[in-house]
Structures are given as structure tokens and as C-alpha cells.
Amino acid sequence: MLSFLKKNKQPITTLFSDSYIDIHSHLLPNIDDGSKSFEESTELIKRLSSYGIKNFVVTPHVMDGVWNNTSKDIQQKLFELTNYLSSQGLNDINIRAAAEYMIDNNFEKLLSKKDLLPIKDQ
């Protein structure tokens, strides 16, 4: 267990307010080096939820030639995941999408087309 939790001896669920948002997670399945299935995503989200984290901004990688994710692909995968979570009875989870962009030639193209998913102002 983390040392700061040992010293405080307080439950981890008290560390996260209801408005806490995990802004860097790779919970969308089969889209980058994160989760590999809807089931794995669900288990990760259940575990995080048990700690009191219920708000997420997923940030899959976008890197030319490695992870060629588009805004449309990311939004579609988010739609599929939220539907899957709902079918599993997880209706108290809030998830939206952004992306973790590598600064490469593709990023310049996406920036010029204004086809980016930023964390802020969505």
C-alpha cells in the first residue's frame, strides 16, 4: 500500500471528492496500449470506482504510424464503452474523451484542421 495511506490510515475512498476527475487514463479498449477489451475496461473502472473515482477523461494516444486514432474513432469507441458499461449496470460513471497527442507531422495536420480532442472546453 502507498506510504501516505499507511501514515494517515484513512480509507482511500476519502481521498477523492465526488468532483474528482481522472484526466489521464487509457480505458478505451483496443485503441492504444491501454485496455484490451470491454471486460478489462469494466474491471478497471469498477476498481477505480471502488476508490471513489467515477469521473474520467479518457486520453488514448494519437501518434502517426503507431496509433492512428482519429477523433471520430475515439468518440465511437467511447460510445461503445459507455453502452457496454450501461449494459453492465454501471450507470453512475461519467466518461468523456480527449486524446494524448504526440507532437509529430500528423499533429500539425490535425491542428490545422482543428480536429483535436482537448481536455478543456469540450
Count of β-strands: 5
* Percentage of β-strand residues: 5-15%
The major β-sheet equals: 3 strands, parallel
Terminal Cα span: 35 Å
Give an overview of the whole structure:
This protein starts with a helix and ends in a 10-residue tail after the last helix. It contains four helices and five strands, in the order αβαββαββα. It has 122 residues and is an alpha/beta fold. The chain is globular and about 50 Å long.
State the main characteristics.
122 residues, 36% helix, alpha/beta, two-stranded parallel ribbon
Question: In terms of topology, how is this protein built?
Answer:
Elements: H1 3-8, E1 22-25, H2 38-50, E2 55-58, E3 61-62, H3 71-87, E4 94-97, E5 100-101, H4 105-112
Parallel strand pairs: 1-2, 2-4, 3-5
Can you describe this structure in just a few lines?
With 122 residues, the chain is α/β, with parallel strands linked by helices. It has helices at 3-8, 38-50, 71-87, 105-112; strands at residues 22-25, 55-58, 61-62, 94-97, 100-101.
